[in-house]
């Protein structure tokens, strides 16, 4: 049975970071809501449990785990609020601090416990708290302190409950990585059985068990997630998988051909290529509003996919490349829907409409893990390192009306941008680098001729997860060369501008 660590999320913004720290140590983990039923925990039988931080206060809120969790005999590590909730529930005392402690803080280890093995007696940790543990529960010892916080870490070795007030998951805490390693290996007794090889083996067994010999459909977009998903499922069930690639006419230059080459020829995947460009462009005629564009494309995709699937006969399953961050984000511990900024296009709505059961083999993986998995499956780097591309494609990068002519202009600009970024060694470093065709014409001069053509904007951003992004400081020499090349080579563009806005308050895509 796979060694698993459970991370109970109390509403921390760092839950995913904690998960990353655990997985970096070759131990599988899952993030679950803080009030998970102890019966469910027993079923999962984790090697250890981690409590995250939270913006809440223990003495004001009801955000607490079920009390039986302390009787399961499973090692626990509490972080920040996670420590305070342990103190509060086991009859210690949590109080409001006179002074908040925030940022880099020197911490002293008072007892050389397993949790601190291999860590110097004094190191810098990262603090962010307004409450503190004023009195430890019975059975606990103080094992670290800072100038401001007497009990910066505590432990009940008998019950195997450990807690730290600081955040070992953020990189500002030196030796945080070692602290997690100590908890996982020395306290929980993990052996580190989570590797890409073992993951592939298990996923294949899981996919076979879920599909039960039935037919599986998959909407292949050519992006990393759906591509890795396709190759993994194909490895598990071969010809029982059919991939449908919908060419909506909003793709980049040669994209359709490239996807067919890779998947049909190299991987011998059962692939249906549907050229629906005309259909999409007809529906988009005269549409200027970004949200309407997105809705039309989403609905049309479902229609085309459904029609194509019908031709294939009965299928029971739909596979999707859903990733772990999507699964976690959709269940925020403290509730409260986040505002919808843009309607993201995916295959949502298809499973219910077509009465298909879902298969989501990547739903416990982060993006970089999916990349590693893809490489392990022998997929080409060109696919694995492809930058994110939005579902509605170039339709949200042609500002204003989407026409074939404008798409063709943008495709040419986009091609030059990709080549330039790859040549400069920036393609992988940047989260995204692309062009936007503006609904603006301006005057230029080429040779002795006056021109009156389109303006294109270059958008290059760095980001960790697309939730926030910064405009990339691409060297002027590279921008200059690219701008020249675009204006000289792409007919219809006589001006290039560089977008220097960050997200928030802007977004990455323009529409
Ligand atoms: P924004 O523009 O909201 O984009 O800052 C954040 C990230 O999401 C990508 N994006 C999409 N991806 N379907 C997708 O699969 C969509 O409809 C969609 N819209 C935006 C965008 O490229 C960026 O990486």
Automatic annotation (TrEMBL):
Top EC category: ligase
One Pfam family, short name: NAD_synthase
Entry annotation: catalytic residues: 80, 167, 169
Pathway annotation: Purine metabolism; GMP biosynthesis; GMP from XMP (L-Gln route): step 1/1
Top-level taxon of origin: Bacteria
EC assignment: 6.3.5.2
InterPro entries to which the protein is assigned, alphabetical: Class_I_gatase-like, GATASE, GMP_synth_C, GMP_synth_GATase, GMP_synthase, GMPS_ATP_PPase_dom, NAD/GMP_synthase, Rossmann-like_a/b/a_fold
Keyword Transferase: no
Domain spans labelled GMPS ATP-PPase: 194-386
Molecular function terms, GO-annotated: ATP binding; GMP synthase activity
Catalyzed chemical reaction(s): XMP + L-glutamine + ATP + H2O = GMP + L-glutamate + AMP + diphosphate + 2 H(+)
Gene Ontology, cellular component aspect: cytosol
Residues annotated for ATP binding in this entry: 221-227
UniProt entry keywords in alphabetical sequence: ATP-binding, Glutamine amidotransferase, GMP biosynthesis, Ligase, Nucleotide-binding, Purine biosynthesis
Xref: SUPFAM superfamilies: Adenine nucleotide alpha hydrolases-like (SSF52402), Class I glutamine amidotransferase-like (SSF52317), GMP synthetase C-terminal dimerisation domain (SSF54810)
UniProt cross-references to PROSITE patterns, sorted A to Z: GATASE_TYPE_1, GMPS_ATP_PPASE
Function comment: Catalyzes the synthesis of GMP from XMP.
Subunit description: Homodimer.
Cited HAMAP family: GMP_synthase
Protein name in the entry: GMP synthase [glutamine-hydrolyzing]
Gene: guaA
């Amino acid at each position: 049975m796979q060694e698993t660590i459970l991370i109970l999320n109390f509403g921390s913004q760092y839950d995913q970071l904690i998960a990353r720290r655990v997985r970096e140590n070759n131990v599988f983990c899952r993030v679950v809501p803080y009030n998970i039923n102890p019966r469910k925990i027993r079923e999962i039988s984790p090697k250890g449990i981690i409590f995250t931080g939270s913006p809440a206060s223990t003495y004001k809120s009801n955000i607490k785990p079920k009390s039986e969790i302390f009787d399961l005999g499973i090692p626990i590590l509490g972080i920040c609020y996670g420590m305070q909730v342990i103190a509060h529930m086991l009859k210690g005392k949590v109080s409001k601090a006179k002074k908040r402690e925030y940022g880099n803080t020197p911490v002293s280890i008072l007892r050389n416990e397993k949790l601190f093995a291999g860590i110097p007696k004094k190191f810098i940790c990262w603090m962010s708290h307004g409450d503190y543990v004023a009195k430890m529960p019975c059975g606990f010892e103080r094992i670290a302190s800072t100038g401001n916080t007497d009990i910066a870490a505590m432990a009940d070795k008998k019950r195997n409950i450990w807690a730290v007030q600081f955040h070992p998951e953020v990189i500002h805490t030196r030796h945080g990585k070692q602290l997690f390693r100590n908890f996982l290996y020395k306290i929980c007794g993990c052996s580190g059985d989570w590797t890409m090889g073992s993951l592939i083996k298990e996923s294949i067994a899981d996919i076979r068990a879920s599909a039960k010999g039935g037919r599986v459909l998959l909407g292949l977009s050519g992006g990393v997630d759906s591509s890795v998903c396709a190759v993994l499922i194909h490895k598990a069930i071969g010809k029982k998988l059919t991939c449908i690639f919908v060419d909506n006419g909003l793709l980049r230059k040669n994209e359709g051909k490239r996807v067919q080459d890779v998947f049909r020829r190299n991987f011998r995947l059962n692939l249906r290529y549907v050229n629906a460009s005309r259909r999409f462009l007809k529906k988009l005629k005269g549409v200027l509003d970004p949200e309407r564009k997105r809705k039309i494309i989403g609905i049309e995709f479902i229609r085309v996919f459904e029609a194509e699937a019908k031709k294939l006969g009965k299928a029971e399953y739909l596979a999707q490349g859903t990733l772990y961050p999507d699964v976690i984000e959709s269940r925020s511990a403290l509730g409260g829907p986040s505002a919808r900024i843009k309607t993201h296009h995916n295959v949502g709505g298809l499973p219910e409409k077509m009465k298909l059961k879902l298969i989501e083999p990547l739903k416990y993986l982060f993006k970089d893990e999916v990349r590693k998995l893809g490489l392990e499956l022998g997929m080409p780097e060109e696919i694995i390192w492809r930058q994110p591309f939005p579902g509605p494609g170039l339709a949200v990068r042609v500002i204003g009306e989407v026409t074939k002519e404008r798409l063709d202009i943008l495709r040419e600009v986009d091609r030059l941008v990709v080549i330039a970024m790859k040549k400069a060694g920036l393609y992988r470093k940047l989260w995204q680098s692309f062009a936007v065709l503006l609904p603006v014409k301006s005057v230029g001069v080429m040779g002795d001729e006056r021109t009156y053509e389109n303006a294109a904007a270059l958008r290059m951003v760095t980001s960790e997860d697309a939730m926030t992004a910064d405009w990339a400081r691409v060297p002027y020499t590279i921008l200059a060369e690219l701008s020249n090349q675009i204006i000289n080579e792409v007919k219809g563009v006589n001006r290039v501008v560089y977008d220097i806005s960050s997200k928030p308050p802007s977004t990455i895509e323009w529409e």
